[in-house]
Amino acid sequence: MNIFGRKEKNKTGKRATRFAGTWYESDPKKLGTELKQYLEAAGKSIAEQESHADNSVGKTLAENRNRAVYAIVAPHAGYMFSGSTAGFAYEFAKRCKPKRVFLLGPSHYAGFEGVALSPDTVFETPLGALPVDRKVVDQLAQHPMFKESREIHQREHSLEMQLSFIREAFGEVQIVPLIIGLLPESSDVQMVGQIIRQYVHEDDLVVVSSDFTHYGPRYDYVPFESDVAEARVKELDLEAFECLNKADVDGFMNFHDRTKCTICGFYPCAVLLSMLPENTTAQLLRYQTSRDTSLEDKFNSVSYLAIGFTGAEGTTSWEQDLTLNSSVSLTDNEKHDLLKLARQALELYVKEGKILKPANAGIEITPTLKRPLGVFVTLFTKKNFATNDVNSKFAKKENKHNRDLRGCIGYIWPIKSLAEAVVDNAIGACSKDPRFDAVEEPELSNIEIEISVLTPLTRVASEREIEIGKHGVVLHLKGRQSVFLPHVATEYGWTVDDTLTQLAIKAGLGPNEWRNGGAKYDVFESIMFEEEH
Question: Which of 67, 113, 265, 268 gets the most CB atoms within 10 Å of its CB?
Answer without folding.
Answer: 268
